[in-house]
Amino acid sequence: MRRPTLLIRTSAALIFLTLAGTSSVLSQGLDLPSVFLEELTWTEVRDAIDQGTTTIIIPTAGTEQNGPHMVLGKHKFIVNYASAMIARELGNALIAPVVTYVPEGDVNNPTRGHLSKAGTITFPEEFYIKLLEYAARSLAVHGFNDIVMIGDSGGNQRGMEQVAQMLNEEWASESVRVHFVGDYYSNNGFRSWLEEQGETPETIGGHAGISDTSQLLAVDPRHIRTDKLAPGGGFPDSGVSGDPTRASVERGVMGIQFKVDAALNQIRELMGGR
Q1: pLDDT tier for residue 225 given thresholds of 50, 70 and 90
Q2: Which residues have CB under 8 Å from 91's CB, separation 6+?
Q3: pLDDT at position 31, please?
Q4: Which of 10, 27, 198, 270 has the lowest CB atom count within 10 Å?
Q5: CB neighbours of 136 closer than 8 A, spacing ≥ 6?
Q6: Got the DSSP string for the chain?
Q7: Which CATH code for domain 11-189?
Q8: Burial class (CB in 10 A: 0-12, 13-18, 19+), 136
Q9: Dihedral, CA atoms, 92, 183, 135, 220, nearest 10 degrees?
Q10: Helix 210-219 crosses helix 74-90 at what angle (to 10 degrees)?
Q11: Phi and psi dihedrals of 268, rounded to 5?
C-alpha cells in the first residue's frame, strides 16, 4: 500500500502561523498578555472591560471521533486558533473557554453517528443550551456588551442560534446583544475553493476529510497521525469521509482564513454601528 504523502509547508504558511499563533493583544490601548479569558486575572479582565474591551467570543467545539488519523479534540484546537485571529482583528475582544461538550447523539442509541466511536462525548441539547445561556448571562453581568457565539461543528449551530434569539428577545431594551455567527461554519467558501483547486466532492468528502485534516495540520500537526492517513480512513466505518491524504498545511491556512473572514464579515454586519 502506498504511504500517503503531505504537501510540504511553504515559508508563507509558516509566517502566517507564526503571526496568527501569538495570543497577546493590544486592545483599546490596554496591553494584555492574552486574548484568552482563562489566561487572565480577574483584575485584568475588569480593567480591559473598563477600557472598552466589551466583546467576548464563546467558541464551541466538541469531543468526537475524527477517524484513526486525527485526535478527538480537533474542533477545539481549530476554533481556539481561529477565535484568536478574530479577536485580534476586532481589537476589543476576548475569548471565553471553548465549550467542548456538545450534542453528539443519544447515549440510549449509541450505535449511530460519532457516538458509535470510542471517546466521543455527547451532551443533551437542552443542557447544551443551558450551558450557553448561563455562560452568556455570566459574561453580560461583568460588562461584556457583544457576546459572539462561533461553532466549529455542525451539531453546535442550532443551540447557539436558539440561545442568541432567546436572550436578544429578553434583552431587547438593554445594551447587550448575543450574535450567532453561523457563516464561520456553513457559509465560508472553503469547500468551493477546494473544488477550484481540482478536488471533487468525493475527494473532499465531509467529516475528517481534506478540510478538517488540512486545518488541524496548519494549527497543530502533532495531532495528526500521518501513518494512519488513508482515503476513506482505510477501512469501512472508519469515521472518515473523503481523502485526507490530499490535505496540506497550505490548504489548512486557506481554510482557516476563509472561516475567519466569513466570521468577521458577519460579526461586523450584526454589530452594525455598535
Answers
A1: very high
A2: 27, 28
A3: 81
A4: 198
A5: 58, 147, 149, 163, 167, 178
A6: -PPP--BPPPHHHHHHHHHHH---EEETTEEES-SBGGGS-HHHHHHHHHTT--EEEEEE--B----TTB-TTHHHHHHHHHHHHHHHHHSSEEEPPPB--B----TTSTTSGGGGSTT-BB--HHHHHHHHHHHHHHHHHTT--EEEEEESSGGGHHHHHHHHHHHHHHTTTSS-EEEE-THHHHSSSHHHHHHHTT--HHHH-STTSHHHHHHHHHH-GGGB-GGG--GGGGSTT-S--S-GGG-BHHHHHHHHHHHHHHHHHHHHHHHTT-
A7: 3.40.50.10310
A8: buried
A9: -80
A10: 60
A11: -65, -35
Amino acid at 138: S
Higher pLDDT, residue 13 or 37: 37
Looking at residue 266, what is its pLDDT?
97
Give, in order, the Cα–Cα distances in Å from 163 to each of 75, 86, 87, 177, 179: 21, 21, 21, 11, 10
Residue 158: is its pLDDT beyond 70?
yes
AA identity, residue 76: K
How many residues comprise the chain? 274
Burial 150-170 (b: 16+ CB within 10 A, else e): bbbbebbbbbbbbbbeebbee
One-letter identity of residue 11: S
Q: Which tens digit of pLDDT belongs to each residue from 175-196? A: 999 999 999 999 999 999 999 9
- What are 145's three cell numbers? 456588551
- Among the residue ranges 65-79, 99-113, 161-175, the one predicted with the least confidence is 99-113
